[in-house]
Amino acid sequence: MKSPSRSWGWLAIAIVAAALVTGFITYRMFNGSVDEMTAQADYQNVILVNVLVGISVALFIFQLKWGALRVALTVVAALILGYIVTAFFNLDTAAQFTRGKYEVALISEAAPTTADGTTLSYGGVEKGEFNKQGVRSPVTDVQYTFAGKSGDVVTLLAYAANNRSLVDLQLALTDASGATLATATAATAEQIGQFKDLRTEQDAALQDFTLPADGLYTLDVRPEVVSFSTTIGETVKATNAAYDAFLLGALGRVNRWAVWIQDALTLILVGLAIAIAFRANQFSLGAEGQLYLGALASGMIALAWGNMSPWIVIPVAILASVTAGFLWGLIPGILKAYLNANELVSTLMLNTIAIRFYDLVLTFQLKPPEAGYISSEKFTNNAIFPSIVAETQVTVAVFIVIAAVIAVWLLITRTPLGYEIRMVGANQRFAAYGGVNTRRTIMLSMAISGILAGLVGAHLSMGIYRQLLINISIGLAFEGVVVALLARNDPLVIPFTGFLYAYLRAGAQFMERDANVSFEVVRIIQAVIILLITAEALIAYFQQRRVQRKGLQSTAEHSKQAAEGGAHG
Q: Which residues fall within 8 angstroms of residue 99, CB to CB, at 6 or more apart?
C-alpha cells in the first residue's frame, strides 16, 4: 500500500517543478522584462498556455514518480550524446579560417618599376579564393611578383575580401634569391584603423618595409595553419551555438513559441488517438487517413457555411470531422473483430485510400481555377478557430485539447468501456472468458481512436492552415505513435510527451536556421532521445511482465499445493 505521505511528497515536487517550468519559459520569452511582457497582446493567454505546460510536467512527475526521474536522466544522457554527435559534425568549423575570398594590396609612394614576369605593381590589388569547395584543385597558397628599387618603402596587405570571408592570412616577402626578408601574420588595432580594407586582426599587414636592393620580389600569401586548440575551441563554440538554438530557440520570441505550441497541440491529440487503440492492444496506424478525412469533412463545412455564425459553423465542422474519423476507424475495427484481419495492414491500406480520396476531392472539386497550387480557398474568419494569442495559430484548440485529455482519461479509467479496453489489452482471451464482448470492444477502441484523429484534421484545417492543402499532414500519425509510446499510453502523461517531442521538432527548425546545422544531425539527436526513452520504457515493460509471470507461477504453485492437500485429505 502506498504511503499517503509519499503521495503528498510527490505532489509537492510536481507542483514545484510546474512552477519552475512555467516561470522559466515565461522569463525566457520576455527576457525577464515585465514591460516587454505586458506590451505583448494577449500576454495573459501566453502565461495561461505556459501554465498548462507546467501542469503537464506536474502530471508527468506525479504519474510516473521515480520513472519520471529515469526518463529525465535518459533525456539528459541523450542530449549529451547528441552534443557529441553535433560536435563531431562541427569539427571542420575551424576550416572557415583557411577558406574564403581574399585580396592582396601593394602600397607605396615610390614610382612604380616595370619588369618582365611581374604580376603586381605599386598601388595594385589582386584577389582570389583559398580552398574553394567543390573544385578539383583548390588554391592553397599564391605568389605575386613585383619589381622594386633599393630604398623603396612598401606596405603589403593581405585581408579577407568581404564580411562573409573569415580567412586568416599570413604573408611573407622574399627576394630574387628566395631569402625571406619579412613576414606578417596579423594586423594591429592601429593598422586596422589606418587601412580601411583591414577588418580584423586575422588580416596580415607588413607596413613601411624598405626594400634593400633593386630587383624582383615575391609576395607569398597563404592561410595560417589552424592550431589544435583553435580547432577544438571553434568546434565547442559552434556546438554551443547549435545547442542554444536547439534547446532555447523556441523560447526566443512569441512567434517561435507559437510554432512549438501549435505543433504540440496537434501531437497531443494524435498521441491520444493512438493510445486508445494501443490500450486495447491494437497496433493501429490508421490515424493518418482518419485525420485526412476529418480535415476534408471539416473543411467542406467551413467552405460551404463560412458566412454563417461561428457558433454554428465551427461546432458543425468539428462534429463532421469526428464523425468521419469515427466511421473510418470503425472499418479496420470490424475487419479485425470479425475477420481477424491484421490491423496494421488494414489501417495502412485504408490510409492510402483516404489520402488519395482527399487529394482527388481537393484537386478536382475544391481547388479554385485560378489557384497557383493545390489548395482550397481560404476559410472565412467565421470558419476558423479563434486565436487566443494575436498573430499566431495558437487557438481555442488549447481548450479542445484539455477537454480531450480529460475525456480520454475518464474513458480509460472511469468507465465500463475503458475497463473492457484495458482487459482486452492485457489478455483478450481472459477478457472473453470474463464476459467481455471483445469484438465490440475492439471495434469501439479503434473507432473512438478515429474520433481523436478526425479532430486533429479539424485542427489542421481550421486552426493551423485555415484552408485545405495538399499534404496537410506528412506522417503526423507516426509521430503520434512516438508520443503515445513515450507516455506508455497514459493519457495524463501524453501532454508532457507531446510538448517534449514538439519542442524537439521546433528546436530542429531553429537549429538548422540559426546555427546552419544540417537537419539530418538534428534527426540523429531526436532519434537518440526517442530510442533511449523507448528503451527505458521497454525495460520497465519487461520487468512488469517478469513480475506478472512470477505471480502467475506462484498462483499456479499454490493452486497445485491446495489441490494436492485436498487429495490427501
A: 130, 131, 132, 133, 167, 223
